[in-house]
Amino acid sequence: MGEAPAFLFDDLQKSNGNGVDLFCRGRETTTIVVLGTKPSLSSDLWALPLGEDRVLVIKNGASTDDNLWFLEVDTPYVRQQKKVLGSDNVVAWSKGVMGYAGKPIVISGPSGVGKGTLIAMLMKEFPSMFGFSVSHTTRASREKEVNGVHYHFTERSVMEKDIKDGKFLEFAQVHGNLYGTSVESVEVVADSGKRCILDIDVQGAKSVRASSLDAIFIFICPPSYEDLEKRLRSRGTETEEQLQKRLRNAKGELEQGKSPGLFDHVLVNDDLEACYQSLKNLLGLDKSADKTNQSVPKIGFPMVNLVSKVGNKIYLNSTMLNLGNASKNSFVLDVSSLKGGAPGRTRGLDLYSVFSLANGFGMLS
Ligand SMILES: Nc1ncnc2c1ncn2[C@@H]1O[C@H](COP(=O)(O)OP(=O)(O)OP(=O)(O)O)[C@@H](O)[C@H]1O
Ligand SMILES: Nc1nc2c(ncn2[C@@H]2O[C@H](COP(=O)(O)O)[C@@H](O)[C@H]2O)c(=O)[nH]1
């Protein structure tokens, strides 16, 4: 049974520390540029080609957040990097993550419109459902802002280098400073099983729209330009000069908010409570919404001793796992709905237990 044979991943890989690795199979050695976060690899691995574009690597005995990895050889990201680097010998690692936390939510709109206020309300009411993508910025921190919580406050030279190294999903020059969303900031939230919220300007929203991140885009409008000015003044966080710059930029942002195809929803933040209720409605969070985290439960398969693949289902036999019920030691890993991938994580994996029958498998959970 099975389409592609699994093989034990004994192929040696040695790093020279520059992201360039030597892969050896038999006597042949090829120099390959290896991108992404590399897993620590021992020889106790299973590797299974999934079509032409990637290899699934199962680390035997590793923890649930470290046991599935993908070595991408011909995905859109790798193809793009091959062009950038001018080499055909490029691969990229991506960590496999069970389940899918729901589409990230991009919230955009002019400075002072109330984006932060609405996001804070959502996170307070649904703490285990939503997580905030902490942006990087070169602007100075305000009183009460905490590094790593509100922003990662960063030197421009450091941020520029990280942008060059492909660590940012999007970045933009906003009101005279550099702001950006790192790939890691979004992935950290999704890894925790929460839905990621991004508070970014309109230029950033355009970049995310053009990226591989499948998100919902919401634009927040003020009831009037005068109200926007009042709110910015009452917040009292900007000098008069900075405030004027933000108000000038708001005119362009309000125009761009109407760009066809950019935003999925537009909300007017007049009465705060009413706007918050509209936001919850469009996210499907009515009064009866379950406020708990609904992420996929984690099942482990520490030691796999048999792997076979039929279509998009991978059958894993794990006899050393003692659950007190030998029939529970078979699992199916469904790879039919893979999402994302390098430079972030590969998501959408589904794992469930099965029991063996004389001529096949039956489902347990
Ligand atoms: N509907 C509303 N009515 C009156 N005041 C509001 C309303 N919504 C938010 N505010 C107030 O407006 C000010 C600006 O709000 P907030 O900081 O959330 O804006 P923002 O869009 O996140 O701004 P920035 O983009 O600069 O971070 C705050 O003082 C907030 O309390
Ligand atoms: N393109 C991006 N814009 C961002 C990001 N983080 C915040 N922002 C936007 O900047 C302005 C100003 O924010 P402030 O905290 O200085 O008031 C605001 O419109 C934010 O939405 C980002 O990562 N990328």
Automatic annotation (TrEMBL):
Reaction(s) catalysed (UniProt annotation): GMP + ATP = GDP + ADP
Query: Coiled-coil regions in this chain?
Result: none
Keyword DNA-binding among record annotations: no
Q: What is its EC number?
A: 2.7.4.8
Indicate the segments forming the Guanylate kinase-like domain, all copies. Answer: 102-284
Matching CDD domains, A to Z? GMPK (cd00071)
Q: Which NCBIfam families would you find in this protein's record?
A: guanyl_kin
Provide the protein name. Answer: Guanylate kinase 1
Q: Which organism is it from?
A: Chenopodium quinoa (Quinoa)
